[in-house]
Every structure is written in C-alpha cells, then in structure tokens.
Amino acid sequence: MKKAVCIISGGMDSALSAKIAEEEGYEIIALHFNYGQRTEQKELEAFRKVAKSVNATESYEIDLPFFEQIGASALTDKSIDVPTDGVEEGVPVTYVPFRNGIFLSIASAVAEKHQAIALFIGVVEEDSSGYPDCRESYIMQMQKAINLGTKDETVLTIKMPLVALKKSEIVKKSLDLNVPLEATWSCYQSETLACGVCDSCRLRLRGFEQAGVKDPIAYR
Length: 220
Hints:
Elements: E1 3-7, H1 12-23, E2 27-34, H2 40-53, E3 58-63, H3 66-70, H4 99-114, E4 118-120, H5 136-148, E5 157-159, H6 167-176, H7 199-211
Parallel strand pairs: 1-2, 1-4, 2-3, 4-5
Helix pairs in contact: 1-6, 6-7
C-alpha cells in the first residue's frame, strides 16, 4: 500500500490535508512537532484525535526545543506579545523562522525510513497569515532539494492540497469529508477557550462565517 507522511499540527488545515491523503488511498504516517509553541499541549491533544480519525498506522511526536532558544517569534518567545488587533499585513511576528523547512526536512527522514512516496502539508497561500514558508513556489523548491539529498530510490512528492484554497473553502471541504473540526485547534495563545482575536482565530472565524456555518469549538 502506498504510504504518505502527513504533517499534522492539530489545526483545521492540516487535519483536512491528512483526510485528503486518506481519501486518496494512502496509508497515513502521522507526524507532529512540539516546538515550544504557546499552545503546545492543546495542539498535541488535537493531533492525536486527528491522527486517529484518519486511521494513522504510525504516529510520531517529535520535540524540537531549539525553536524556543532561537526565539524571534511570538509563538515561541513569551516576551513577544501575540497580536490581537487584526490580521497583520506582511510577515507577522507569529512567523517562526524557517519552521516549515525544518519540518519538511524531518518529515523527509521519516518518509525515507518508511519508504513513503508522498508528504502532505496543509499550507495555504492565498488566505493565510503571510508566512513565506507557506508559498507553493518555496515548497516545490524544497521537494527538489529533498529528492537530491536522499537515496536514488527515494522519490518524494510534496502534496499541498489546500495551497490555493480560501478558509471558507477549507471549512466546506472539511465538512464534506467529515473532518472532526471540533477536535482541531487554531488559537495561538490559549489552551482552554480560543481567544477569538489572534490572527489564526480571526482567519478561522472568518472562514466559518463566509461558509455560513458555526465553528464547533468554544471561544471566550
């Protein structure tokens, strides 16, 4: 059976990406990173639920504490406030330097171990928070580099099924595929009730509003 490594943060986008992989007939190897983010425990809890929902045969929970040491992001450096005044223009302070590049590198090692043929990542370019490592052009270059730096028999395709979708389309497709949206978590700063005002919460809520449905998670 063909195998795919799915990077699953616990958020709505990566949950849908993993579900699409399952729908396409892949055996799912679920991969999650704990990197010192503010909502680390809540995201881990969400990951486990999502991995179960897509019948993952293997699950990896990898700790990357060095992100906290590097800092430079409101997600990993608690001396930097998470913005709550509206979605920022340009690259926001919640951007974690080269996070997706590091995630994809580790995912490639896991994929090579399991002889997987695909990596699924839930990046969204058109309606995202402006992160440079979510761009399709960047991911495609990473695919080239990964295939140059692995064994000849390792040929990985990085799949980005959501890259051109809007949040409202992600909500609708998630509902169509019975993704457990109630189990996902998007808030950048709270692990109890979602704050509703950080960039990620605003984008999520706007997606549900435009889709004409109510978000099943609880907000302050």
